Amino acid sequence: MKQYDVIVVGGGHAGCEAALAASRMGCETLLFNINLDSIALMSCNPAIGGLAKGQLVKEIDALGGEMGKVADRTAVHFRILNASKGPAVQSSRVQCDKQLYRLTMKSVVERQPKLHLFQALVDRLLVEDGRVVGVEDQTGVSYGAKAVVITTGTFLNGLIHIGMAHYPAGRAGEMASLPLARNLSELGFEMGRMKTGTPPRLKASTIDFSRLERQDSDPAFEPFSLSTHHLREERLPSYFGYTTPETHCLIRDNIRLSPLYGGIIKGIGARYCPSLEDKVMRFADRQRHPVVMELEGLDTEEVYAKGLGNSLPLELQEKIVHSVPGLEEAEILRAAYAIEYDFVQPTQLQHTLETKILRGLYLAGQINGTSGYEEAAAQGMWAGINAALAVQGRPPFVLDRSEAYMGVMVDDLVTQGVDEPYRMFTSRAEYRLILREDNAALRLTPRGFELGLISPELQEQISGRIQQISEGIKRLSSLRIYPGVNVNSKLEQKGSPAIKNPLSLFQLLKRTDFSWDDLALFSDLPDFPEDLAACSDRNVRKQIEIEAKYEGYISRQREAVARMKALENRRIPPGFDYSAIPGLSNELKTKLSRVAPETLGQARRITGMTQAALAAVLIIIKKWE
Ligand code: FAD
Q1: CA-to-CA distance for 549 and 515, rounded, in angstroms?
Q2: How many whole angstroms from 377 Cα to the centroid of ligand 1?
Q3: pTM
């Protein structure tokens, strides 16, 4: 039996990051995928990033991951979402050339030293004394490993639905992973069933784009990755349109043909991402719903028909597509479908994403009940890092809720579990003002360096930036201007109110009508920091400006983090007996025993937990201590 340090099962978005992290940290790693041509395939829309997801991509990059780099190299349409809102909720999103994305990630994975690829379907885990020791593929060949990461996406017991027809598949055109699903269940994992869906793909030359509203890419864009220095030149537009009363009529009249409404699909779908038949039935008063035509790449006719996702029979899908202005003649290249699949309830995981039942086994991505490429990639990286650390006998890597969106997601998953597909939202992060896209590198690159995933050069560049920012704040804070004709006439010139009391340049930057470029107005002051004002690093300027403009909010949030950490980090002894705590409801006792939180902070976030219950747990912990 061939031996590896880490085996990763599944080469999707989670699996690629897991395998790259483990091998880059020095582990001999084997990555399995059912088909090597579908490594890092985008199952649904050809886009990376989006609200809160952009933050995840930048965090992955800051730790030394790959998703942001590959997205930058293959992107053909760029947008900053929420550009008119505050920096905490701004997020980047790109549309990529779908096949180029897959091929680029495949070539990165293929060329990574210590990373071995193999095309096979893994059927079961090899287990000895409560520890996973390897896997077996569908031909009966065994492979040994000190740690195994499973990232099988929608493939576990996958079942595709198109109208009343259904058939086993992991994704359209790909086989499902049936024995592994059975094996996990036999090993004692609590499994659940979820569903998702995808819209039809249309042929570009059959679409009348003149009847749709064109949206071009944003002209300026900050790449996802710290190591991207230029983006490709080619750009593709998107096209916006709407469904019509005819579309809605078709759906309502034929709703009995939807497996979703006919009671055939039992898996739980995401409320926030309804299919078209769901939208029409649930929001009956809406006259139209938006659709967006996203071109899937530079050299293909395939167009992703966002907003037209459904699970109706093909004949009906055609009528629905043709009812949208501009799509009257559109040809369907790939039918829309819904897919049901098994997931593992993530309360069975520790914060490292190692399972509580089997030592050495890690789960990441859609298998944990999440949805989305970015959520999967972030977990994959997290699990891959922890698998490598465990193999090397090093302490685990866990980020908390105040350090990263990744930390929020993992904590939500393992503490609360999921009752619908989990995706990241900015509202899930209570400290989102300090977890911005723009400061991901400052927050996490030093951690990536400690792990061995960030080069010394990049680390030096980022630590130089951190120093420049803190020095810049100090220098601008120490340089004061005083009320007087000279100063106030300059402020008046730019329409900014006069000052009545002495003010530092840093305080002046707090004003919404005063920007970094306006600092030059005071260049005649003695000690004016010429070098800083002319600083060419856009990131340094941006960080200082954000720190000034949001100083009050940011410092309040930092104080809240300090208060939270005092409670958060209070450890609950392993094996703590909740059944003996007086005043706790039986329901809470069961939940706490099942989740087995490691800290009071985790206990606090369990659904249904009250202040009184938390106080009761704290009293007993103090007695134990
Ligand atoms: P995947 O990307 O699914 O990758 C899993 C990989 O594991 C595959 O390459 C497969 O070959 C491999 N594999 C599986 N079993 C085995 C095995 N036993 N042995 C070896 N290899 C194995 N997300 C959204 O955010 N929005 C959406 O609208 C959306 N719609 C979707 C629609 C459909 C139809 C599907 C299928 C997915 C959709 N998703 C959507 C989910 C998104 O694709 C996933 O969240 C994301 O790809 C999960 O990444 P992953 O790495 O966990 O799994």
Answers
A1: 10
A2: 11
A3: 0.92
